[in-house]
Specification:
- By secondary structure, the protein is α/β, with parallel strands linked by helices.
- The protein folds into 2 domains: about 110 residues, Tetrapyrrole methylase, N-terminal domain (Cobalt-precorrin-4 Transmethylase, domain 1); about 160 residues, 2-Layer Sandwich (Methyltransferase, Cobalt-precorrin-4 Transmethylase, Domain 2), CATH 3.30.950.10.
- The chain has 11 helices and 12 strands.
- The protein has a 5-stranded parallel sheet with strand order 3-2-4-1-5, sandwiched between helices. Strands 6-7-12-10-11 form a 5-stranded mixed sheet, with helices on both faces. Strands 8-9 form a two-stranded antiparallel sheet.
- Strand 10 and strand 11 form a beta hairpin.
- The radius of gyration is 20 Å and the shape is elongated.
- InterPro entries: 4pyrrol_Mease, 4pyrrol_Methylase_sf, 4pyrrole_Mease_sub1, 4pyrrole_Mease_sub2, Dphthn_synthase.
- Keywords: Methyltransferase, S-adenosyl-L-methionine, Transferase.
- Its EC number is 2.1.1.98.
Length: about 290
């Protein structure tokens, strides 16, 4: 059997009773930390909570070698694979589940709080008002000549419908590189220079969330021209470009970040103008 279980967002805080029960009779427990970052997560603390040893697995183990070691244990007994956040947010883990099914191995998935849950908890944004989620990766070419158009086009489409856009920022743990909010903000401005479709300008409202729901979390809201100089501390960071904000979302962000209500209402007027220009209607409806 293969059990893929999420650890949640912050160290050992979000570990479920169900995960603890699965750990009791697992033949081996594996932990991967290259697809995400968990503030305060230390292997020794995890070992203490589980009462079991834990083996670290790398990108090479799970992707290049198709999780061979993990699945060999699962084929003859029970393997517990631990991930940060919700396990199936990362497509790597979905592939492992599929591969296990192909081999006739029984699979169980234990969910946990994901970064999406963390963003909602940290910002008060309404879940039914999010559009498509997209990733921002580090540029390989400083000129952005071959940079993917997808993040820019997704933002354009979401804003035209008044929907919030979550940008998941690049994590390259094996290289020790984690994209920060200010870097992502600068990258969005550069993508505007590259594609020039009037999606982003210096007054675009952005929300930055660092270490969502952790004791030292930071939440920023303001113009993207301000965001490029914002220091939110250590990763993980997430960038959100809001769509049309409901009054309750504005109130939450006002009290959370201290930014004046007028900042958010001014942004709403800009989003509404973009919606009229595109001739589209929002896909959400207030309950």
């Amino acid at each position: 059997m293969l059990v893929v279980a999420g650890l949640g967002l912050c160290g050992t805080r979000d570990i479920s009773v169900g995960l603890l029960r699965e750990a009791e009779d697992a033949d081996e427990i594996f932990l991967e930390t290259y697809t995400s970052v968990s503030p305060g997560l230390r292997v020794e603390d995890l070992v203490s909570v589980l009462g079991r040893g834990v083996k670290l697995v790398t990108r090479k183990d799970l992707e290049d070698e198709s999780a061979r070691t993990v699945l060999e244990v699962a084929a003859r007994g029970k393997a517990l694979l631990l991930t940060i956040g919700n396990p199936l947010i990362a497509t790597t883990h979905s592939s492992i589940v599929v591969e296990a099914a192909k081999r006739g191995i029984k699979v169980r998935v234990l969910p946990a709080p994901s970064i999406i849950d963390g963003i909602i908890a940290s910002t008060g944004l309404h879940v039914y008002k999010f559009g498509r989620v997209v990733s921002l990766v580090f540029p390989e070419d400083p000129s952005l000549k071959n940079y993917p158009y997808t993040p820019y086009s997704v933002l354009k489409d979401n804003v035209s419908r008044g929907l919030h856009t979550i940008f998941l920022l690049d994590i390259r743990a094996d290289e020790g590189r984690y994209m920060l909010f200010r870097e992502a903000s600068e990258l969005l401005l550069r993508l505007e220079e590259r594609f020039q479709e009037n999606v982003v300008d210096e007054n675009t409202l952005v929300i930055g969330v660092a270490r969502a729901t952790a004791e030292d979390e930071k939440v920023f809201a303001g113009r993207i021209s301000e965001a490029i100089n914002a220091d939110l501390g250590n990763a993980p960071h997430t960038l959100i470009v809001p769509g049309e904000l409901h009054d309750s979302e504005i109130d939450f962000l006002h009290y959370k970040t201290g930014r004046p209500v007028e900042v958010f209402k001014s942004w709403n007027a800009k989003v509404n103008a973009k919606k009229k220009q595109s001739g589209t209607s929002p896909t959400w409806r207030e309950p």
